[in-house]
Amino acid sequence: MEELCGVCGEPVDEENVSRCSLCGMKFHMAWSIDAQVRSCGRVYSDDVRCAIGFVCNICLSEHPELSQSSMDMGQGSALW
Ligand SMILES: [Zn+2]
Ligand SMILES: [Zn+2]
Q1: Whole-number pLDDT of residue 69
Q2: How many angstroms separate the alpha carbon of residue 4 from the centre of ligand 1?
């Protein structure tokens, strides 16, 4: 029944969870500011497909280029 985070191994709740685009594992993603959940991954932007996806911290460490294209507040504003 209980699904576990692929990154930290702790149970995920139904709301603050996402699925990694690379490995398909579920991981913790805090969707609201007040969520008492740490994020075990992040959103990244796929420049090739002009899409956004989610990547867990494990894949992020294996694909550091993803973090470079990640959407950080204040970054990439020159593109707009
Ligand atoms: Zn986790
Ligand atoms: Zn992953």
Answers
A1: 55
A2: 8
Q: Is the pLDDT of residue 73 over 60?
A: no
Q: Are 28 and 17 in contact (CB under 8 A)?
A: yes
Q: Answer whether 0.85 is exceeded by the pTM.
A: no
Residue 10 C-alpha to ligand 2 middle, in angstroms?
Answer: 15
CA 61 to ligand 1 centroid distance, Å: 15
Which residues lie below 8 Å from residue 25, measured CB to CB, with a gap of 6+?
5, 6, 7, 19, 56, 58
Contacting residues for 2 by C-beta, under 8 A, at least 6 apart? 11
Q: How far, in Å, is the centroid of ligand 1 from the Cα of 29?
A: 8
